[in-house]
Amino acid sequence: MNVTIGNDSGLIKLAQAIRYQVFTLEQRIPTELDLDGLDEESIHALVTEQGEPIATARLTVKEDGSSIMARVAVMEAYRGGGVASKVIQALVVHAQNIGVESIEIHAHAYLGSYYERLGFDFIKKVEIVGEHQLIEMRHQIVRT
Fold first, then answer.
1. Which residues pair with residue 49 across a beta bridge?
2. Is residue 28 pLDDT above 90, yes or no?
3. How far apart are alpha carbons 103 and 61 in whole angstroms?
4. Which of 10, 34, 58, 101 lies in the 20 to 30 Å Cα band around 46?
5. Quick check: is 137 in a domain?
């Protein structure tokens, strides 16, 4: 498994293809909610297995040192094997390396305990997207 972090157009297109499969086709979230115009200004993590794109997530860094992690998606055949954790941890390390102070995520409510194990704290319930209740969580970056 290989993780690439960047924001070139080729990487973004591969990330969007994974998201289309997971969010639009599987979860029935309208494509226009996924394609929010932030891809070009965000940092993307792309996981490949034998050259095939299998997972992605993105990090949008704000001027105040905070960031938002979003669009965490893993192709169905690779779920349950730690791929999501790998992509999330890669973005957390990258965020720390570039001086980000905190990472916020709006996650599916049923994934709250999963994100807590990755260092995120529950903040509050937020919007419902499609049929999915989302919760706001935050990871405070610890400086070493």
1. 52
2. no
3. 9
4. 101
5. no
Give the CATH number, domain containing residue 24.
3.40.630.30
**What range defines the domain where residue 90 resides?**
2-103
The answer to whether residue 109 is domain-embedded is no
Is 25 inside any structural domain? yes
Distance of CA 88 to CAs 1, 20, 143, Å?
Answer: 14, 19, 18
Residue 76 lies in a domain: yes
Q: What mean pLDDT, rounded, does the chain reach? A: 94
Q: How many domains does the chain have?
A: 1
- In contact, 120 and 137? CB cutoff 8 Å: yes
What per-residue confidence (pLDDT) applies to 32?
A: 87
